[in-house]
Amino acid sequence: MADTQAGPPADTSADTRAGTSARGLAGKVAIVTGAGRGVGAAYARALAAEGAKVVVNDLPASADRTPTSAQSVVAEIEATGGIAVAHHDSVADFDGARRVVQTAIERFGRLDILIANAAIIRPRFLRDADEHDWTDVLAVATHGTFHSLRHSVPHLIEAGGGTIIVTGDLVTDVHFPRNAAYRAAKAANAVLASYAAEELRPFGISVNAVNPGATATALHDDYVASLVDHAKSFRAELGTRVAAVGAALPPPAAPETVPPLGIYLCTEEGRRITGRAFQLNGTSIGVATTRTEISYLDPDVDVPAGWSTAALAARLPAWLAGGPGAAAAGQS
């Protein structure tokens, strides 16, 4: 899949080439979901600083949340001369997401940018989880992303194109205990973003995933606190993997390290990039891929009926234990 699309000519002015253009999103209208704190709040502030008008979406008061988190972010934006409005519907609800989008249209007259960032976490082992520990997480992080995208796209098409950024998660084979629902939701979003990029390419709408690593947010802190007796072994596993590449385990990055890439992807030049999954590790930027090199184990002889249990028992365990080298030798 190509990662660029036709679009407006790139601005080659000195300011843009140097990355120093002032208020480069002036006149644009953005929605940021899950924007009351953490990465979402950092996105909202950064978009406003670049001149965009921002709908700051987050839930209203609850036991574990600042009562006016979205309004607080709006107040910060307005204090620095920006323009923003708070909205408190849940994007987990299809009509709630529609009302978020409608707020942008009614207040600002258009929509150019969607940052689909809303997510929650319910750390549980699968053996202990109840129905809502699973469905609540997917309702916000996955269904909420689809709901927001579905209601935004017609307005982005009407505006002549736009930008959708989906907040993903670390792409790694590290096991994150008590985190199956969150990781499953984010994996689904990665596929959704990839499909949306292809479907919306003809309309000049770019869709990319931006996947932060460990970031100093309340969600991160809630997850780490849930590990209890697993925290030491989990950090030890991470430390071992990082040391293998000659580095040290870094502290969580500040939320403000995430938006700069997203802001660039919202510019006229950045909109030419689509269908990518960017991996952030602090200030380092990588590109993840869903493409997988698949190795195959073939029978020694042509067996029309397929493998027998005895033949699998004789060959499969040793083939798997042999690692990539052995797998490559059996690749068809």
Q: What does it look like?
A:
By secondary structure, the protein is α/β, with parallel strands linked by helices. The chain has two domains: 14-288, NAD(P)-binding Rossmann-like Domain (Rossmann fold), CATH 3.40.50.720; 295-332, no CATH class. It has eleven helices and eight strands. The protein has helices at 14-17, 38-49, 69-79, 94-108, 131-158, 180-200, 218-227, 231-243, 259-266, 309-321, 323-329, and strands at 29-32, 53-57, 83-87, 113-116, 162-167, 205-212, 277-281, 284-288. It has an eight-stranded mixed β-sheet, with helices on both faces. β2, α3 and β3 (83-87) form a beta-alpha-beta unit. α2 (38-49) runs parallel beside α3, α2 packs across α9 and α5 (131-158) runs parallel beside α6 (180-200). The protein is globular, with a radius of gyration of 22 Å.
**Rough outline:** globular
Query: Total strand count, please?
Result: 8
Counted up, domains total 2
Structural class: alpha/beta
Largest sheet: 8 strands, mixed
> With helices defined by DSSP (H or I, 4 residues minimum), what is the helix count?
11
Query: What is the end-to-end distance?
Result: 24 Å
Oligomeric composition of the shown chains: single chain
| Strand order in the largest sheet | 3-2-1-4-5-6-7-8
Return the string of H and E elements.
Answer: HEHEHEHEHEHEHHHEEHH
- The CATH H-level superfamily of the largest domain is NAD(P)-binding Rossmann-like Domain
Unreliable segments of 5+ consecutive residues: 6-21, 242-248, 324-332
Measured on Cα atoms, how large is the radius of gyration? 22 Å
Relative helix content: 40-55%
Given this structure, which CATH class of the largest domain is correct? Alpha Beta
CATH architecture of the largest domain: 3-Layer(aba) Sandwich
The CATH topology of the largest domain is given as Rossmann fold
Please indicate the percent range of residues in DSSP E strands (runs of 2 or more).
Answer: 5-15%
Mean pLDDT: 81
